[in-house]
């Protein structure tokens, strides 16, 4: 089902959206649809992961994390 949705955006944001759409060779509509879909999917996945992790005892999480070998951060990953 397609629905028309009118949205008022600041001019600067419109310019950025247009630039990103051109960079990705997409129409503005396709770019906005792609970006919204990706953001919602990420949010839903995070909710599911948080729900699953809430059932895991803290000790089990610590045990799993302790098995990850220590290594230096990649270039650009330092805070």
Explain what the structure shows.
It is a single chain. The chain has one domain (11-66). It is elongated, with a radius of gyration of 20 Å. It has three helices and no strands. With 79 residues, it is mainly alpha-helical. Helix 1 (11-23) crosses helix 2.
Descriptive key words:
mainly alpha; single chain; 79 residues; 62% helix
Q: What does the main sheet amount to? A: none
Oligomeric state: single chain
Whole-angstrom Rg: 20 Å
Helix content: 55-70%
- Provide a count of the helices: 3
Number of domains: 1
Poorly predicted sequence stretches spanning 5 or more consecutive residues: none
Distance between the termini: 45 Å
Summarize the topology:
Blueprint: H1 11-23, H2 28-54, H3 58-66
Helix pairs in contact: 1-2
Short synopsis of the structure:
With 79 residues, the chain is mainly alpha-helical. The protein has helices spanning 11-23, 28-54, 58-66. The longest helix is centred in the middle third of the chain and has 27 residues, at 28-54.
